[in-house]
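Module 6 notes. Inverse folding takes a fixed backbone as the condition and produces residue identities as the prediction. Think of it as a translation problem where the source language is geometry and the target language is the twenty amino acids. Below is one complete input and output pair. Work through it position by position during the lab.
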C-alpha cells in the first residue's frame, strides 16, 4: 500500500512538472498595422525592438487578416473561423449573436487546457480594466478572460496573454520630422498633407515599437522569455485610404513575427502565405491542447509551407454599406464587388473625420489636378491584379483576354469558398 501511495505521488509530481513546463503564449496585437517596419525592409522608421524580435524568431513576409477592419478580423482569429461563418462580418455588429457550443474560441480552449488567459497592456503593475477585445458576438469579458495580467495567475500556472497595443490606430502620434525618404504608395497624391499624415503613421509605429520592447524586456526580467511563444501581429492592415476597410493588400497585409527559443531558429524568414486564422491552431498545438477542425494551419508544423490561397471579406463598416470578397494567391489578387454601383469613395463618416488624405484626394480630383481609378463613380464587378508586376494593385486585368482562364478559376474558387464558409 505504501509503495502504491508513493508511486501515485510520483505520478502526480511528474504530471505537475510536465504541466509547469508547458510554454506560455503571448500574443502582442497592434491596432491597424501594415508591414512598415525596419525588419521588413522599410526605411526611415525606427523599430529596434521589433527588429530584434524578428532576428531571434521567424518573420512571415506574406501574412494576411481575413478582414480589413478590427471587429470582424478579431472575431475571426479569436474563433479560428471566418467572420462570415460566425455572423461577425459587419463591423461593430449591433445585433450580436451568442456563439453556439459548436464554435470554439481560442480563449475558451486554452482555459480548458489549464492556462490562465488574460487580456491587458503587458505592463506592470497592470491596469485595472481589461484591454480591447472588440468582438462581434455576445460574450462576458470577465469569463472570456481570467484577468488583466499574467501576474494574477495561480502559482506555476502557464499563461496565455493577449497584449493589446493601440498604435498605430488613429489618432496618430505627431512625427518630429518630415521623413522625405519614406516611400509612400503611388496611389496617393504627392503632397505635403500626404507626407505629414504618413510621417505621423510612422511615428505611431515607433511608439508601438517602444511598447513592444517593454513587454519583451518584462518577459526577460521575469524569467519567462525562454519558455514563452511570442506572436506579434497587426489585427489588419494600415489605417489609410485604400488600406483599412479595403481588400487590397494595404488593408489585409500585416506583419507576423513568431519567437520561441529552442523551437524556432533565430532569423528565419518565410514567404509562404499565412493567415491570422493560423494563430488559433498554432497556439493550441504549442500548448499541447486538442486542435479542432479549423481552416487555419499550425504555423510551427515542420511541414508548413503556407496556404495556396487566402480569402478576405469586407462588409458594412460604420455607415459605409458594402459587400466585397477577395482571393489572394502568391502571385495574383481577385476581388469581387457585390455593389459595383457604389463608388470607392462612398461617404464614410469615420474616414471623413479621420483621414485627411481622403479629403485631399477629393479636392484635387474636383479641381482637375489629380486623378485615379479609385475616384470613379462606379466600380467594376471584378478586379484582378498581377501582384508580382503590380504590387500596389493599380492595373485591373479582369478584362484582359489573356487572363480569362485565371479569372474564371479565381471566380469559381470564391464562389465555392462562400458556399463552404
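Target side of the pair, the amino acids:
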Amino acid at each position: 500500500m505504501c509503495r502504491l501511495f508513493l508511486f501515485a505521488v510520483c505520478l502526480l509530481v511528474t504530471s505537475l512538472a510536465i504541466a509547469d513546463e508547458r510554454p506560455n503564449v503571448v500574443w502582442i496585437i497592434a491596432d491597424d498595422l501594415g508591414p512598415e517596419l525596419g525588419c521588413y525592409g522599410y526605411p526611415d522608421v525606427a523599430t529596434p525592438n521589433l527588429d530584434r524580435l524578428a532576428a531571434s524568431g521567424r518573420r512571415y513576409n506574406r501574412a494576411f487578416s481575413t478582414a480589413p477592419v478590427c471587429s470582424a478580423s478579431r472575431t475571426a482569429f479569436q474563433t479560428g473561423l471566418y467572420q462570415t461563418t460566425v455572423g461577425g462580418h459587419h463591423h461593430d455588429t449591433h445585433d450580436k449573436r451568442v456563439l453556439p457550443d459548436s464554435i470554439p474560441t481560442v480563449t475558451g480552449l486554452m482555459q480548458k487546457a489549464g492556462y490562465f488567459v488574460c487580456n491587458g497592456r503587458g505592463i506592470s503593475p497592470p491596469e485595472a480594466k481589461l484591454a480591447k477585445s472588440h468582438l462581434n458576438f455576445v460574450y462576458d469579458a470577465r469569463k472570456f478572460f481570467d484577468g488583466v495580467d499574467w501576474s494574477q495567475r495561480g502559482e506555476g500556472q502557464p499563461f496565455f496573454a493577449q497584449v493589446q497595443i493601440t498604435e498605430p490606430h488613429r489618432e496618430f502620434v505627431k512625427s518630429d520630422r518630415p521623413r522625405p525618404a519614406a516611400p509612400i504608395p503611388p496611389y496617393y497624391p504627392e503632397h505635403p498633407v500626404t507626407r505629414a499624415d504618413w510621417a505621423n503613421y510612422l511615428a505611431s509605429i515607433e511608439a508601438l515599437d517602444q511598447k513592444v520592447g517593454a513587454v519583451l524586456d518584462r518577459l526577460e526580467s521575469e524569467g519567462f522569455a525562454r519558455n514563452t511563444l511570442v506572436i506579434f501581429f497587426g489585427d489588419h492592415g494600415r489605417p489609410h485610404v485604400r488600406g483599412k476597410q479595403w481588400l487590397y493588400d494595404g488593408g489585409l497585409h500585416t506583419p507576423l513575427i513568431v519567437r520561441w527559443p529552442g523551437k524556432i531558429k533565430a532569423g528565419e524568414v518565410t514567404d509562404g502565405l499565412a493567415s491570422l486564422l493560423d494563430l488559433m491552431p498554432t497556439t493550441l498545438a504549442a500548448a499541447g491542447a486538442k486542435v479542432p477542425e479549423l481552416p487555419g494551419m499550425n504555423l510551427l508544423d515542420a511541414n508548413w509551407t503556407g496556404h495556396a490561397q487566402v480569402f478576405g471579406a469586407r462588409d458594412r463598416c460604420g455607415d459605409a454599406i458594402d459587400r466585397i470578397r477577395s482571393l489572394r494567391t502568391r502571385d495574383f489578387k481577385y476581388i469581387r464587388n457585390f455593389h459595383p454601383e457604389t463608388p470607392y469613395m462612398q461617404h464614410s463618416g469615420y474616414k471623413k473625420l479621420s483621414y485627411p488624405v481622403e479629403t485631399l484626394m477629393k479636392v484635387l480630383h474636383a479641381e482637375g489636378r489629380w486623378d485615379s481609378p479609385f475616384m470613379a463613380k462606379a466600380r467594376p464587378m471584378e478586379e484582378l491584379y498581377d501582384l508580382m508586376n503590380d504590387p500596389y494593385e493599380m492595373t485591373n486585368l479582369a478584362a484582359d483576354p489573356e487572363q480569362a482562364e485565371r479569372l474564371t478559376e479565381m471566380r469559381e474558387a470564391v464562389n465555392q469558398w462562400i458556399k463552404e464558409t
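Reference fact for the lab report: The first strand starts at residue 24 and ends at 30.
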